[in-house]
Amino acid sequence: GNSVTQMEGPVTLSEEAFLTINCTYTATGYPSLFWYVQYPGEGLQLLLKATKADDKGSNKGFEATYRKETTSFHLEKGSVQVSDSAVYFCALSLVGTGKLIFGQGTTLQVKP
Amino acid sequence: EPEVTQTPSHQVTQMGQEVILRCVPISNHLYFYWYRQILGQKVEFLVSFYNNEISEKSEIFDDQFSVERPDGSNFTLKIRSTKLEDSAMYFCASRDLGTETQYFGPGTRLLVL
Prior knowledge:
The structure holds two protein chains of two kinds. Chain A has strands spanning 3-6, 11-14, 19-21, 23-26, 31-38, 44-50, 56-59, 62-65, 75-77, 86-94, 100-102, 106-111. In chain A, the strands form three sheets. In chain A, strands 2, 5, 6, 10, 11 and 12 form a six-stranded mixed sheet that branches. A four-stranded antiparallel sheet of chain A has the order 3-9-8-7, with no helix packed on it. Chain A contains no helices and twelve strands. In chain B, a hairpin with a 6-residue loop joins strand 7 and strand 8 (75-79). By secondary structure, chain B is mainly beta. In chain B, 35% of the residues are buried. In chain B, strands 2, 4, 5, 6, 9, 10 and 11 form a seven-stranded mixed sheet that branches. Classes of the chains: A mainly beta, B mainly beta. Chains A and B meet through strand 5, strand 6, strand 10 and strand 11 of A and strand 4, strand 5, strand 9 and strand 10 of B.
């Protein structure tokens, strides 16, 4: 079946630290991959996406590269800020169905 | 910037009661979705809707659930007889033709007592 697995949280970092949140997927076919972010009390916002192998999505200093050989889409940021504290969701969608399949979410807490 | 809106933001109801959750998708979008997130768990797909009919639904979306697009702007999720386990955050999303990016509303937090 199709599924997404994210690293367990919470992840607690100091400001300006390097961030990696691991995400791996299982899919039949060729999925598009997404990272969504949920700030406290808000809905899900698209952070970045990649639609084919070796694509790199980037936004607000965050990056993720679609790695077909390792079925991964790890989220990275070189220097986190307190304002990045949120829950991060990795997700995939398959062409045709449109529905998103989410990972369990990873809570990031950045301390000053 | 256009956005998806949802009402109400919070709803408390008694077990067995009917609830209707409302969403206004982005105006030119053609695909509509409902997801739910039980507290502390992952976001789960419920149903997708296109061209005035359900295109896909999950096993969660049983006979107690229904969706409707009653006019050109609203998209509703009805739960006929709520159960305690229906307590969750319900998210509406929409997307345009030719893109896979879904835009989410802020959610409705439903509490069934």
